[in-house]
Amino acid sequence: MNKETKIRKEIFSKVKRFYDSVRKKNEFIPGKTRIEYAARVYDEKEVINLVDASLDFWLTQGRYAKEFEAKLAQFLGVKYCLLANSGSSANLLAVSALTSPLLKKRRLLPGDEVITTACGFPTTLNPIIQNGLVPVFIDIDLGTYNIQVSKIEEAISKKTKAIFVPHTLGNLVNISKISKIAKEYGLWFIEDSCDALGSLYNKKYTGTFGDIATFSFYPAHHMTMGEGGAVVTDNVLLRKILLSFRDWGRDCWCEPGQDNSCGRRFSQKAGSLPFGYDHKYVYSHIGYNLKVTDMQAAVGVAQLKKLPKFIKVRKTNFKFLYQHLKKYEEYLLLPRTLDKAEPSWFGFPLFVKEQSPFSRNDIVRFLEDNKIATRMLFGGNLTKQPAYKNMRFRVAGGLKNTDAVMNNLFWIGVYPGIDNQRLRYICKVFEKFFERF
Questions:
Q1: CB atoms < 10 A from the CB of 288, how many?
Q2: Burial annotation 242-256 (CB, 10 A radius, 16+ → b, else e)
Q3: CA pair distance 127, 122, nearest whole angstrom
Q4: d(CA 164, CA 12)
Q5: Which of 114, 144, 166, 341 could form a disulfide with 337 if both were Cys (CB 3.0 to 4.6 A apart)?
């Protein structure tokens, strides 16, 4: 053991001691301890990895990022995984990549249409607008809160080039039908799996069906690295394009800190540049810098080992809540799933039926007053958000259910930090609320 390794081991030992001494016992006091809808779940291993990466002082992505990309790709069963600094950035990369001139006739151009939903998180929609594309909104189904697949074909026009939809709260869209439509009409299919890491469709993970898929590792999600995301694909050309857009738009594919991996750094002709212009400074796309730091990736590597357990607990918590809330179906529409779908739930959605003697605000206020965190389904109907007042878009068939979700739906957490004691308390609070009806 060399001196550096020995010192690191001593530091890690002290980090563990520090973690053990300061970690909170998280004693739960019913009615006083707030039950969050989501939160990070970690132990000393994440902290040790974080310190390990900081000791390297390699401040951009490095060995941990490379390890994480390889292991997440292996977990999902895809060929290529690229880390980004957030799930939102991953979405931006996914859409931007489809505008690359390298895709020739299949390249997305300003004015082309992308089928999506108005019910969801804004950064699924934003990259469509930011790339000069036109979103075509299709309504969602109540219960699944995912796109109405039956309306996709009639929404397709000569300008339609892609479908970009989220798996809402971890619940799966009808992947087989969307994949069939995309193939028949020659459309790109992007899966927004930011809320669905670990969800299965026909025993295969989401994020492995489309041309590109995205994931998020924000603290609220299935696993975390603080800020972080990933984009995955099986297409080697798309991988090259995604890498370019992520790394400033450069044509070079050298890893950070490496030079001349191709052996032709000073012997190529690009554009109108002089022959032999340094390939490290040749740009083939108008890109960004959306890389993670290795400190973030180090946390992710430790979290990834816990992911199977996290997924299992989310499913168990969802099942517990479903069984106990089923008796309120007169008032609440409980979530439903498709055949062949095994969601890794991000949250538990509850839709207050129109005929109920109470409003969403009534039950949400009651839950919040009793220290149970709630959330709306993100932006509700995004076409009604102030940011999109002057957005160019098309609606295919109306957004009745999207409006209903905006007005009547909320969700509560199922994340692994919610134990049986907390689950029982949640159910008791619901019982107390419904005693009056």
A1: 17
A2: bbbbbbbbbbbeeee
A3: 9
A4: 43
A5: 341
Do 276 and 346 fall within a single domain? no
Cα→Cα distances 224→38, 71, 194, 221, Å: 11, 15, 11, 6
Asked whether residue 292 is assigned to any structural domain, the reply reads yes
Question: Are residues 233 and 78 in contact, defined by beta-carbon separation less than 8 angstroms?
Answer: yes
Same domain, 317 and 344: yes
3-class DSSP assignment, residue 158:
coil
User: CATH number for the domain including 73?
Assistant: 3.40.640.10
Q: Is the pLDDT of residue 52 over 90?
A: yes
Per the structure, the count of domains in the chain is 2
Helix or strand run (H / E) with residue 348: strand 347-352
Q: Which two tokens stand for residue 77?
A: 């069963």
Say whether both 222 and 312 belong to one domain: no
Question: Tell me: the pLDDT tens digits for 293-304?
Answer: 999 999 999 999
End-to-end Cα separation, the chain, in angstroms: 69
Are 394 and 268 part of one and the same domain?
no
> What is the extent of the structural domain holding 56?
48-296
| Residue 61 DSSP one-character state | S
Supply the mean pLDDT for the chain: 95
Of 154, 155, 160, 153, which is closest to residue 111 (Cα–Cα)?
Answer: 160
Q: Which residues contact 101 (CB under 8 A, 6 or more apart)?
A: 107
Q: Is the pLDDT of residue 274 over 90?
A: no
DSSP string across 27-54: ---TTTS-B-S------HHHHHHHHHHH
pLDDT single digits (tens) 396-417 = 999 999 999 999 999 999 999 9
Q: Quick one: which H or E segment has residue 341? A: strand 341-342
Instruction: Give the integer Cα–Cα distance in Å for 205 and 18.
Output: 37
> Domain end: 296, 318, 339, which one?
296
According to DSSP, residue 170 is labeled G
pTM for this model (two decimals): 0.95
Do the domain assignments include residue 4? no
In a domain, 12, yes or no: no
pLDDT digits (tens, 9 = 90+) for 356-388: 999 999 999 999 999 999 999 999 999 999 999
3-state secondary structure of 62: coil
Asked if 178 and 146 touch (Cβ cutoff 8 Å), the reply is no
32, amino acid identity: K
Kindly list the catalytic residues: 221
CA dihedral 100, 103, 109, 115 (to 10 degrees): -110
C-alpha pair distances (Å), 23 with each of 42, 135, 330: 10, 46, 43
Is residue 225 exposed (0-12), middle (13-18) or buried (19+ Cβ within 10 Å)? buried
More confident residue, 24 or 341: 341
DSSP code of residue 283? B
